[in-house]
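Researcher: Let's try something more involved. This one mixes different molecule types, so please make sure each is placed in the same coordinate frame as the others.
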Amino acid sequence: MRLYLVVLVIVSIEAKEPASKYCDVVSTDPTKHCYVKETLSTVAHSPNQLSVDKTTNTLFFSFDFGQGEYVPAILHIDSRNLSVLKGVKDAFAIANDPTTGDMYFGGSHGIYRYTPRNKSLQKLNIQNLDIWWLYIKKNIYFIKFPSLSAYYYANRTVKAVPELKGGIVHQFVLDKEDNIFFINGTGLFGVKHGDDKPILLRDHPRFLGIATDNNGYVHVCSEDGIFVVTKMVQKVKKVINVQGVLGLTFDRGNHIIYSDSHEIVRLVPMATENYYDKFRGL
Ligand SMILES: *[C@@H]1O[C@H](CO)[C@@H](O)[C@H](O)[C@H]1NC(C)=O
Ligand SMILES: *[C@@H]1O[C@H](CO)[C@@H](O)[C@H](O)[C@H]1NC(C)=O
Ligand SMILES: *[C@@H]1O[C@H](CO)[C@@H](O)[C@H](O)[C@H]1NC(C)=O
Ligand SMILES: *[C@@H]1O[C@H](CO)[C@@H](O)[C@H](O)[C@H]1NC(C)=O
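Model: All components are placed in one shared frame. Result:
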């Protein structure tokens, strides 16, 4: 019996090894040269808004249930347990509040708040809202559909975001210093906190998604990769070459999670000494 167990363990280690020796994705970021691709879930109707509750390392994503109504799915990252959250009507937009762990969902029926800890779901009492995008930092920030204009909700009132007043915004985030970064059909823009003149940072490729990582760095994704906005010089640098990225977020360990048209993937960096780089021929 004991011998049998030992054999099993060895077999499982050997079976795992080859896969972890090759780079799935090679990064241009010198500190994280190699990533292993982990498929967290395969999905038929691609989600483009994703968000992680860092307190439980649980990924929430919206997917089209078929009738144009977006349903929130819950994926516990460590166990890969996948379920659907009932009670939210149309969760097109998804965001999390990193200070409380609460999740927010927005769509044609307004904004909902979900507390994973006690599984309580509440609809916020704001009238006449169709939500396209949500972002939580101290206040609840959102973009209304179909005007694609940016607002925030504080002290029970809805106000326009001053830095973005009058503009068309597809998605936006705030960095550590509350500077705003947004994408629209023209490109990626930055606006300094309290300023009202957006600066065009890059007008190609077409950016589809934007997210801040756990350290407040702004990332954007496009059909051909993931980019980081490097703060010092306001440069936008491609860090990962992957095709067809629709949306992105970061897990508790600050690993990139992204969706494409058919799956949700987590990229886990590997130390240089633990892999063979097929491009370097070793
Ligand atoms: C998976 O998640 C569902 C819903 O949260 C829960 O009821 C179930 O117990 C979980 N299963 C496992 C194996 O953790
Ligand atoms: C769950 O927790 C949230 C946040 O602490 C609180 O507002 C809500 O009332 C709680 N719900 C229940 C059912 O305990
Ligand atoms: C909300 O009200 C408090 C107290 O009146 C005030 O200090 C704060 O600045 C207000 N916040 C916003 C975003 O207006
Ligand atoms: C994107 O935003 C900029 C800055 O507000 C604006 O000048 C531009 O017209 C917008 N692009 C589109 C396609 O709406």
